[in-house]
Amino acid sequence: MSAVESKIGDAAALLGVATHVLRHWEDIGLLTPRRLPSGHRVYDDQAIGQARLIQICQRAGLSLAEIGQLAAGERGDRIGLVNAKRTRIAEHITNLELADRFLAHLVRCIHPVISDCPECSALVERGSRSAITR
C-alpha cells in the first residue's frame, strides 16, 4: 500500500470521524472508496478529498440528503439548493440576533416581571412575528 492509500481505520482517524461514519457515507452513495480484491476499502487521495468535501458541506449546514442532491444535481439545481440554504441561514442569523438583543436587554432590565417591561414586550412581539414556521 502506498503512502497515499489508507485503510478505513486510518482514514477515519485522519478525518476525525468514526469508521461507521465512512461506511454510512458509502452506503448512501456519497463516498466511493476503492475496494481491494479481498473486499477491504482503500482510501486514496480522491476518497479522502470526497470525505473532506462532505465534512465541509456538513459544517455549512447541509444534510447528507442535501449533499447527495448537490453531488447528483445539475448546476441549476445546485444553485437553487445553495440559495435556499443561504436563505434559511440568513433567517436563522436574524432570529439569533433578535434573541441576542432580547438577552442583552434582560441583563439591563429593571422590571421585576418581563411582561411589565415595554421594551421586553416589544422584543417578544417582534420575535413572535419574525419566527420561522416550519
TrEMBL record:
<keyword id="KW-0238">DNA-binding</keyword>
<keyword id="KW-0805">Transcription regulation</keyword>
<keyword id="KW-0678">Repressor</keyword>
<dbReference type="InterPro" id="IPR000551">
    <property type="entry name" value="MerR-type_HTH_dom"/>
</dbReference>
<feature type="domain" description="HTH merR-type">
    <location>
        <begin position="8"/>
        <end position="73"/>
    </location>
</feature>
<dbReference type="InterPro" id="IPR009061">
    <property type="entry name" value="DNA-bd_dom_put_sf"/>
</dbReference>
<keyword id="KW-0804">Transcription</keyword>
<protein>
    <submittedName>
        <fullName>MerR family transcriptional regulator</fullName>
    </submittedName>
</protein>
<dbReference type="Pfam" id="PF13411">
    <property type="entry name" value="MerR_1"/>
</dbReference>
<dbReference type="InterPro" id="IPR047057">
    <property type="entry name" value="MerR_fam"/>
</dbReference>
